[in-house]
Amino acid sequence: MAINRDLTALALLAQQSPKLRTLRMRFRHPPSDGPRRSGDYLTFSTMQEFLSMENLSVLVLDTSVGFFASGEEKAGDHVCTAVNALLGSLRTLHVRMPSICPDILSLVDAKESLRLSTVAINLCSPLDVPGITSLSHSKRCGSQEGGVPQLKADLVVQAEALAARMSSPKTVRILTHLLLKFETQSFDVLTGKTMRLVDGAAWDEDGQIIEDSSDAESEIPDDESSSSFD
After folding, report:
1. Beta bridge partners of residue 58, listed in sequence order
2. 169 to each of 30, 146, 198, how far by Cα in Å?
3. Which end of the chain is more exposed for a tag (fewer CB within 10 A), N or C?
4. H runs (alpha helix) in the chain
C-alpha cells in the first residue's frame, strides 16, 4: 500500500536526523486506496522503522488504526515490544492503540535508573472517529481474556514497577472510559488516586479526584470483544 511505502521512506529520513528527539504520530481514517479492513492499513514493519530511532526522548503514538503483519516480523514481535525497547532513552511516552498489552511497560534486565518521567497509556477509544462510542476500549494484544479491568490492572502492575526505576517520576497514568458515559478517568499510578478529566484534557493533566473510585471501576465492562475500536 502506498501509505506504507511513503511512511517507510519518511522513517528512513528521520533515522538520518540525529537531532530529532520528538516523534508524534496520529492515525485515524483509512486512506482512500482501500485498507485491508476497517482498522488495519499500516504494517508492523513500517511502524518498526520509526520505533528503531534510539535518539528519541518523546514518543506520542495515538492511533485508532491496527497494524497487520507483513511477513517480515520475528515470532513475538509487535508494536508493544518495539515501544518497550525505547524505554531506556525516552523521557515522555504517550500511547493509545486498538490493541495493547503490559509488554509495553515491562522491564527486562533494567539496572540503571530511567530518564523516563511521564507515561500515559490511554485505553479509551478516540471520540473523533465515526461510529466510535464511549463503550470502546483497547483490547489486549492477541487475546480478549480478562476484559478491560484485567488489562488495566496488569498495566498498573507494570507501571508501578516502571515508576520505581524512574529517577524523577512526574506522571504515570492509565486512562479509561466509564460505561455508558463519555467521561474519561485517569488512574494516577504514583498516588493511587483516580481523577475525572474534563473534555479535551491532556492525557497527563490533573483532574478532579474521585474519593471513592470503586463505583467507577465497576462501570468498566468486563468483556468488550464486540466494542474494541480497531
Report:
1. 22, 92
2. 36, 29, 24
3. N
4. 2-15, 44-50, 79-84, 147-165, 214-218
SS3 percent helix, strand, coil of the chain, rounded to 5, is: 25, 25, 50
In whole angstroms, give the CA distance from residue 102 to residue 84. Answer: 10
* Higher pLDDT pick, 72 / 35: 72
CB 220 within 8 A of CB 148: yes
What pLDDT, on a 0 to 100 scale, did the predictor assign at position 144? Answer: 61
62: left (phi over 0), alpha (psi -120 to 50) or beta: beta
Supply the pTM of this predicted model: 0.86
Q: Quick one: cell of 221?
A: 465492562
pLDDT confidence band for 149 (50 / 70 / 90): very high
Contact of 121 with 87, CB cutoff 8 Å: no
Q: What is the dihedral of CA 88, 40, 184, 82, to 10 degrees?
A: -10
- Average pLDDT of span 142-167: 90
